[in-house]
Amino acid sequence: MRLLFEQWGYSILNTDVSTWFQSEDTSFIKKAISLNRDGLRFFRLKHQFYFDCFYLTETCDSSLFNELNEYLIKFGSNIFTKKALKRTYNFFAGNTGSLNVEESLLKHRNDNRAFGEKYENSVLVVATVSAGKSTLINALTGSYFNKVKNGACTSRICKIHNKPVTDGITYRKDNVLNYNANIESKSSEETSEAAMHFVSSLGAYRVCLIDTPGVNNSRDHNHLIITSDAIKGQNFDMVIFISNGQYNGTNDERQLLDLLHNHNKKPVLFVLNQLDCFKNGVDNIAKMIAVYHKELTSIGFDSPKVFPVSAWYAYLLNAQKSLDEEEQEELAVMRHRFSKAFFDLNNYIESESEHEYQKTGLKALENEIIKLLK
Ligand SMILES: Nc1nc2c(ncn2[C@@H]2O[C@H](COP(=O)(O)OP(=O)(O)OP(=O)(O)O)[C@@H](O)[C@H]2O)c(=O)[nH]1
Ligand SMILES: [Mg+2]
């Protein structure tokens, strides 16, 4: 309940409320009650107060409604009239009547419930080591949750769920759910499952991105087992297969493609990543896409869709608000590089870009993911 309260507080106030209430400290309650003496009609807020209590309880476990009701009767007997409580109880427990609260509160609940009732599409992201799986996932979530900077590599499966609104991060640690208002303070190394609002065009959809360890880690053979088990398990709705454009076509990659072709029945989107490292006048992106397409067809993939992208540039653009100084400089360099027609990655598969984000190639990939959603 505390976790829910903190999340709810953040989504309404955009403030970390975790420090507001210390369990033994009742001075906040006294302060709130004394507001009445200052002419502030705190008790006018009884409807909102009851709404919060029932809404948070409902999110946790609606079988607790009766207990909550009895508790609130006792708690409010000297302060509130019983009418407002009864009305709120009937609304939540019996689905009858209406409430005397702001439209925004009802909308918060309706949006949350509608989102929760949607089917969650899972997207498995696989590749050989260092192709850019974690960076691509950061680009699609708009957060630096998968720390890729320090050379640390992903060593286990990590599921990242989209939430309907920006309200920090919820993550699992030792099977206990935790919450933190600041997403960037947490890292995928601490957890195998987390939820945050995606700052990209996937933000409106109920999607889960599944990060996997690179399969050809020479130091840890276990990574191949983890990722191939995930592929064989088929507990997802589509696959993003990433190839590092600079080194594409290695034996390790070929093995992974064969594994995917033999054991997967779900749609696959093929990404050629790190194309920002290519050299204008030396490398030929169009030719590379054509060669890769041919190779995929020869393995047996039927009409494979290949997306040329720069996950790193896409991340820098999506996470602009939270970049450190070094990343901001990097963004300026990227912007300059992508001002040349050669780097308009969208132009290799669709048409000339209208916005800078389209140039990263991620927009086309996001559109295709959205098209495949159930
Ligand atoms: N220039 C450039 N670098 C990238 C891009 N995507 C990823 N990288 C870099 O490539 C390195 C590996 O990226 P990760 O995202 O950690 O790759 P990964 O596939 O998750 O790696 P493992 O988890 O170790 O298998 C990092 O240094 C990234 O910054 C890109 O689009 N452009
Ligand atoms: Mg990784």
Question: Which key features would you list for this structure?
Answer:
single chain; 374 residues; alpha/beta; Rossmann fold; 2 domains; 9-stranded mixed beta sheet; 14 helices; 9 strands; 43% helix; elongated; binds magnesium ion
Overview in brief:
The chain is α/β, with parallel strands linked by helices. It has helices at residues 2-13, 27-34, 46-61, 65-76, 82-93, 103-117, 133-141, 222-233, 251-263, 285-299, 311-318, 325-337, 356-359, 362-372; strands at 121-127, 158-162, 169-173, 176-180, 193-196, 207-211, 238-244, 268-273, 305-308.
Can you describe this structure?
- This protein is of the alpha/beta class and 374 residues long.
- The protein has 2 domains: 2-116, no CATH class; 118-372, P-loop containing nucleotide triphosphate hydrolases (Rossmann fold), CATH 3.40.50.300.
- 43% of the residues lie in helices and 13% in strands.
- It contains 14 helices and 9 strands.
- It has helices at residues 2-13, 27-34, 46-61, 65-76, 82-93, 103-117, 133-141, 222-233, 251-263, 285-299, 311-318, 325-337, 356-359, 362-372; strands at residues 121-127, 158-162, 169-173, 176-180, 193-196, 207-211, 238-244, 268-273, 305-308.
- Helix 3 packs parallel to helix 5 (82-93) and helix 7 runs parallel beside helix 11.
- The protein is elongated, with a radius of gyration of 25 Å.
- The relative contact order is 0.10.
- The chain binds guanosine-5'-triphosphate and magnesium ion.
- Magnesium ion binds next to helix 7.
